[in-house]
């Protein structure tokens, strides 16, 4: 055998350890993924029921309404559907999941900030401060997604088991 030729066993011992994409997610993102997949499905049901004239209370990020087909209601439903899509993508290890998750996190952070400062801008009730605790999870969620994006997208380092 010539000295520069690779041996058969070299490929076995030099391969990178292959992991599933889902293994990159911490337990709290996996838990919330299930919650938001269910929540996204319920949002679709609320939209359909709203088309039939039913009223229901919808609330998310400080936005509240009893009218599913109002601007606020449609915004809450859209947020829930986006969160459901991001959660589904993360759970099923889709390539686009990190991007959708990052969009979801940034829009969620922006929505929380908007809801917190709107009373001061509008002048309706500028005396009360509305701190959105969702930020305590949205910011770490965005940071974690940014941290794992490279590994998630690197198909050569992952074994996607379906």
3D architecture notes:
This protein has 162 residues and is mainly alpha-helical. The chain has one domain. The chain contains five helices and two strands, in the order H-H-E-E-H-H-H. It has helices spanning 10-14, 27-51, 71-91, 97-122, 135-153, and strands spanning 58-60, 63-65. A two-stranded antiparallel ribbon has the order 1-2. It is elongated and about 80 Å long. The model has no long low-confidence stretch (mean pLDDT 85).
Summary keywords:
single chain, 162 residues, mainly alpha, two-stranded antiparallel sheet, 5 helices, 2 strands
**Count of structural domains:** 1
Please state the CA-atom Rg, rounded to the nearest Å: 22 Å
Strand content: under 5%
Spatial sequence of strands, sheet with the most strands = 1-2
Spatial shape: elongated
Indicate the structural class: mainly alpha
Distance between the termini: 40 Å
Write the layout of secondary structure elements.
Blueprint: H1 10-14, H2 27-51, E1 58-60, E2 63-65, H3 71-91, H4 97-122, H5 135-153
Antiparallel strand pairs: 1-2
Helix pairs in contact: 2-3, 3-4, 4-5
Quick structural gist:
The chain has one domain (27-151).
